[in-house]
């Protein structure tokens, strides 16, 4: 129950990764400022969360079923909250997809958009009208650095994150009239077991429909670099959660929030050249001409990331 200084927080996709870590971190807030409704589409997957929440489970953290792709499920979950009162909505549920576009079916692409785009919009449509009435609230969307600048073989995932960024960019302007904050969180790679497993799995997968040359570029150039980058500069779900908590607790949160300072130059590159050629040429050379150099650069970054870089993140301000 949201009362006094306690804020009601609704989070989607809490069975693993960032959602799980954030739900636990907020529920264990020292000052007990949050009541967390940690949601997931399948409650059979609750054990890891319940175990991590420990004593907070049943006190500052409760569980609810919510499938962002299902109108009824979303409505039911919000109706079950007293007064439908949500102070902070965190749209975290999302799915990834990587590979040559020829090998991904339209149905698979639609599933990504259903979750990453329409899932977020469905949540916002359900919660925003009550926030507007109260003239208060904060909507947070876990986007990605790939929602600002894409790289090869992430075409469909990036398209979904670009779509939600465009939606939010427009909505944020209107929401200012109602004193509702909207913030995008843009992590770079996040080291979850899931992510590493997905990349390994993709490595072994056939890519039906894609020509051998494209498959070669994908498997032998792109994937090894991607794995190296994940291991070298990937953040942990806990680091991302800390960043989100900071954004929640800042009085004037920024609209865009990169979590990894190493990605700031990549974003700057994009804004430095409105033709877009600088970015496209840069990534082309990185991938196809500088593969071996990239490998050593990544080793150097990995070395550095154990030192001071690891402790640096982009401040919400
Ligand atoms: N990992 C990265 O490198 C990275 C980088 C940038 C941004 N992100 C973004 O961060 C967010 C969280 O991802 P993660 O890395 O923590 O991955 P994750 O561990 O796979 O977590 C994704 C969560 O979303 C849930 N989910 C999927 N479809 C859903 C649906 N229809 N309804 C409700 N929940 C659903 C999953 O639940 P199930 O257990 O039921 O599948 C899971 O709990 C995503 O939006 C992702 O795009 C991740």
From TrEMBL:
Its EC number is 1.1.1.300. NADP(+) binds at residues 13-41, 67, 161. Substrate binds at residue 144. The active site is at residue 157. Keywords: Lipid metabolism, Membrane, NADP, Oxidoreductase, Sensory transduction. GO terms for cellular component: cytosol; membrane. GO terms for biological process: estrogen biosynthetic process. GO terms for molecular function: all-trans-retinol dehydrogenase (NAD+) activity; all-trans-retinol dehydrogenase (NADP+) activity; estradiol 17-beta-dehydrogenase [NAD(P)+] activity. InterPro entries: 17beta_DH, NAD(P)-bd_dom_sf, Sc_DH/Rdtase_CS, SDR_fam. It is an enzyme of class 1 (oxidoreductase). Belongs to the short-chain dehydrogenases/reductases (SDR) family. Retinol dehydrogenase with a clear preference for NADP. Converts all-trans-retinal to all-trans-retinol. May play a role in the regeneration of visual pigment at high light intensity. This is Retinol dehydrogenase.
């Amino acid at each position: 129950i949201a009362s006094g200084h306690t804020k009601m927080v609704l989070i989607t996709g809490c069975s693993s990764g960032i959602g799980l870590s954030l739900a636990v971190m907020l529920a264990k807030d020292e000052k007990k400022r949050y009541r967390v409704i940690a949601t997931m589409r399948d409650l059979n997957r609750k054990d890891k969360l319940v175990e991590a929440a420990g004593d907070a489970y049943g006190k500052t953290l409760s569980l609810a079923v919510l499938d962002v792709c299902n109108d009824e499920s979303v409505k039911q979950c919000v109706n079950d909250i007293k007064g439908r009162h949500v102070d902070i909505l965190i749209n975290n549920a999302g799915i990834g997809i990587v590979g040559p576009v020829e090998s991904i079916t339209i149905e698979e692409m639609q599933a990504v958009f259903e979750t990453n785009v329409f899932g977020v919009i469905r949540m916002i449509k359900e919660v925003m009208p009550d926030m507007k009435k109260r003239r208060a609230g904060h909507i947070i969307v876990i986007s990605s650095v790939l929602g600002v600048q894409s790289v090869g073989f992430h075409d469909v995932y990036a398209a979904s994150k670009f779509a939600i960024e465009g939606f939010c960019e427009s909505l944020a302007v209107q929401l200012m009239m109602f004193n509702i904050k909207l913030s995008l969180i843009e992590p770079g790679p996040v080291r979850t077991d899931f992510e590493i497993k997905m990349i390994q799995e993709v490595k072994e997968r056939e890519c039906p429909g894609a020509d051998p040359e494209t498959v070669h570029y994908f498997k032998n150039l792109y994937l090894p670099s991607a794995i190296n980058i994940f291991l070298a500069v990937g953040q942990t779900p806990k680091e991302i959660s800390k960043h989100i908590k900071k954004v929640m607790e800042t009085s004037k949160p920024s609209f865009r929030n990169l979590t990894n300072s190493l990605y700031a130059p990549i974003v700057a590159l994009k804004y430095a050249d409105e033709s877009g050629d600088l970015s496209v040429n840069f990534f082309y050379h990185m991938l196809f001409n500088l593969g071996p150099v990239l490998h050593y650069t990544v080793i150097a970054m990995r070395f550095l990331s154990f030192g001071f870089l690891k402790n640096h993140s982009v401040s919400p301000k």
